[in-house]
Amino acid sequence: FSISRDSQDAFAARSFQKASAAQKAGKFSAEILPVKVTVLSKNKNGEEEEREVLVDSDDGIREGVTKESLAKLKPAFTKDGTTHAGNASQVSDGAAAVLLARRDVAERLGLPVRGKFVFAATVGVPPKIMGVGPAYAIPKVLQKTGLSLTDIDFFEINEAFASQAVYCVEKLGIPYDKVNIHGGAIAIGHPLGCTGTRQIATGLNIAKQYGARVFVTSMCIGSGMGMAAVFVSEE
């Protein structure tokens, strides 16, 4: 697909930079539920002891990452490859949740309506190039909803690898400033089974902070699929 190492590293560095700036500014706080956990660690005497830790931020976000620093990393798969640890999604643990309900039920229960789920679409692509999924799922969901790219305020596109994320953005012609405004999976992490929901929480949070309204989430799927969904913020 002719996605250069340089363009991948530039995209990955920008993901870290956006996420780091957002984290410093407290922009993730509204979408994170702090959790107290007990961890084992060694004290000054080398003995293991339990201590309580408040987990209230993602710890994979690194400050100071640049395209130049990423260029020093060795390829992960082949000697002349372009993918490495710094321009691919992290191995992360995580959990996310959303509550989807009919509007009348939410109102009856007194639940705040943060946004509206409009429609989702899935597509199949060759499993060997599953990363291109969003490039085909996004046009399909836009067609189904009667929307165009210009109707979408911003996109949350999963960064499984910088290579596939760059390809999808370039193929669709989406302005980079509309993609993953607070960074993506390269900086934040990509816990399988969590990311799709995390994108919704992030999208609703971004929409509220920036006064945006319509956004799209999308990701590739390992078995050769792509999925995209449209949401409308109501805050």
Strands side by side in the biggest sheet? 3-6-5-4
Q: Any low-confidence stretches, pLDDT <50, length ≥5? A: none
Q: Helix tally?
A: 7
Largest sheet data: 4 strands, mixed
Please compute the radius of gyration using only Cα atoms.
19 Å
Number of strands: 6
Mean pLDDT: 96
N-to-C order of helices and strands? HEEHHEHEHHHEE
Structural class: alpha+beta
Q: Could you tell me how far the N terminus lies from the C terminus, measured between alpha carbons in angstroms?
A: 40 Å
Helix amount: 25-40%
Written overview of the protein:
The strands form 2 sheets. Strands 3-6-5-4 form a 4-stranded mixed β-sheet, with helices on both faces. Strands 1-2 form a two-stranded antiparallel sheet. The protein is globular, with a radius of gyration of 19 Å. With 235 residues, the protein is α+β, with helices and mostly antiparallel strands. The protein is 31% helix and 20% strand. The longest helix is centred in the N-terminal third of the chain and has 20 residues, at 5-24. The termini are far apart.
